[in-house]
Amino acid sequence: MAIKIQTIKDIRLYLSRELAGIYPEEEIRSLTNIIIRHVLEISKMHELYLPEKPVNSRQATGIIKITGELQTGKPIQYILGETVFYDCRIKLNKSTLIPRPETEELVDLILHENAGYRDKITDFGTGSGCIAIALKSKLPASSVTATDISDEALKMAEANAFLNGVDITFVKDDMLDPAVGKLEKTGIIVSNPPYVLNSEKPVMSGNILEFEPHGALFAPDSDPLAYYRGILLKAAGILKSQGRIYFEINESMGSRMIHLLETHGFMDVQIVKDINGKERFIKGAVNEGK
Fold it and tell me: Was domain 95-286 assigned CATH 3.40.50.150?
């Protein structure tokens, strides 16, 4: 029997039925809340749980359309064209990766270790701009530069910076090119570069492979640390004395990344595990004696 969508209760029943067997029950509940907030433009959390709150015909049509796209496996962030990252509203398109919770942990690590920071931060491979925007929003006295090789990604990142009311300098730059170009001296370098190996594709979910930009995801098996090496070569020319570097990494590359940073003269190199206990981040400081 068809469910007529007239209230929030109807939305929940409809999505539960239409997405059953495609997504786990817990994920359906999460998706339902995201969709209700977006389509009904709900700002107060308690309104999500008012079962008899009415839904008009335009909103019901929107729910049905979104549900159809979800049934194809398309990520909700691309369907809605946006997500929330570290309290920042981030618009997305086909040229930008969906920000992950692990990357929020990277931002949290930097903020925890650099409270009140007032110097320059440089974010390599910014994509949607989520890292740069989150850092600037929480460290307003800092000066943030964000780079990317993709013109489309840079346009989206600029739009996101404007949307969140933060002033960021955007520079087109190739992480694999060691030349520093227009980049200035900086106190912190951060990057979440492509680190998934091409050989890992068979174990990845289909919606990631089908919808997310491969250029921002994958590193060659023949040289999986190529992007990190390129950034470290740039760092030699722009990272200030007592500067720090932070990377998100492939969990299988921890020991190789330690060796890479130490080879490039960094000290106090440490692996930091994510909330799931995986070796997800690495940090280091400039060796002033090098």
Answer: yes
